[in-house]
Amino acid sequence: MTAAEGGSRILLHPRHVEALGPELFAKLDKTTMIEVLEPWINPDTQRSAAISRERLRQIETDTLPIGLTGDPVQYQINRNQNGWVIEVINNDGVVKEGSKPAVVHQQVIARVKLTPRFAWKQATEWETVGALAQGESVNLAIPPGESRFVEFAPKREP
Predict the structure, then answer these.
(1) What is d(CA 36, CA 60) in angstroms, rounded to the nearest whole number?
(2) Phi first, then psi: what are they for 20, rounded to 5°?
(3) Which residues in 85-111 are b (16+ Cβ under 10 Å) and which e?
(4) What angle do CA 76, 82, 84 make, to 5 degrees?
(5) CA 76 vs CA 63, 65, 83, 157: distances in Å
(6) Residue 158 has pLDDT above 60, yes or no
(7) Which of 76, 145, 138, 85 has the alpha carbon at shortest distance from 109?
(8) How many CA atoms lie within 13 A of 107 on its CB side?
């Protein structure tokens, strides 16, 4: 209830609404933005999923300051005093079995495009490249098992 009273957006599956009951659901609905998600079957697995790909993409677009497209990677976005930093991790191409040494497949390079959703003046890759070319987006090629950190400095209004 604390999150709801603080103005959080709450996404619920219909079974959650049913479990809450009409009285508690009505109370929550008055305190915050409640969205009851449509049931969705993942077409790849034919199993029920908590949220559709389309709705998840819309939430990503509405809330994350940097968009990422391309190969499947792990990423996180953080704020610092200079702007926004995204860490992009290529977990593919490294195979580790039991007590054997890891095998790295060097050809498995993740290619992604980072697109800030704010006006920016500079992008810097912290460890390997330094300053990146200006444009609407930044392209990265990340070797297997490696990470890249890119800091985007926003344009400051005078």
Answers:
(1) 17
(2) -70, -35
(3) bbebebebbeeeeeeeeeeeeeebbbe
(4) 20
(5) 13, 11, 14, 27
(6) no
(7) 145
(8) 0
Q: Over 80: is that where the pLDDT of 4 sits? A: no
- pLDDT tens digits, 134-146: 778 999 999 999 9
State yes or no: pLDDT of 83 exceeds 90: yes
27 closest CA partner among 51, 5, 52: 5
Domain annotation for the chain: domains and CATH numbers: 2-59 (no CATH), 65-154 (2.60.40)
Task: Identify which of 141, 22, 24 has the alpha carbon closest to the alpha carbon of residue 88.
Answer: 141
Kindly report the pTM of this predicted structure.
0.77
User: Residue 8's pLDDT is what?
Assistant: 78
- Do residues 126 and 149 touch, judged by C-beta distance below 8 A? yes
**Which of helix, strand or coil describes residue 26?**
helix
pLDDT in tens, 17-66: 999 999 888 888 777 788 899 999 999 999 999 899 999 999 999 999 99
